[in-house]
Amino acid sequence: xxxxxxxxxxxGVLIVIVLVVTIPYFIYVAEIDKASKGCREGCGAxxxxxxxxxxxPSYLSGNEGAYDICRERIKKMLKVPSTASxxxxxxxxxxxVRGIGEKTYQVTAHVDAQNVFGAKLRKKWFCQVREKDKxxxxxxxxxxx
Length: 145
Hints:
6 strands; six-stranded antiparallel beta sheet; 2 domains; alpha+beta
């Protein structure tokens, strides 16, 4: 078995180049996948008055607050968030907010938004949040494809 001098060295360089190119790609794909599938407890964190992710400077609680904070989180998950259109309020048609435990709410609704190709699509979404001292904890957030 004969081999040309330097063949092993070229093969090693080729492997390094492939790894340098593919690893960042897979990290990027994983981040997109995580954003599109939603999150579970611990993925996002608390949102409270006056911090990024809050719906307004004034704190909203109960069903209204649960709907507003979930709507803001869903909007951030969209491909083109500036085109998002949600039902008007927590008691509008197409929105269901219900208590599922002490200060814990489940919100189900829909959003109309453009995809990356400009087509307006309606997607259902689901969110569970827990109210905490002037803030919210996301337990589950998911856009249903």
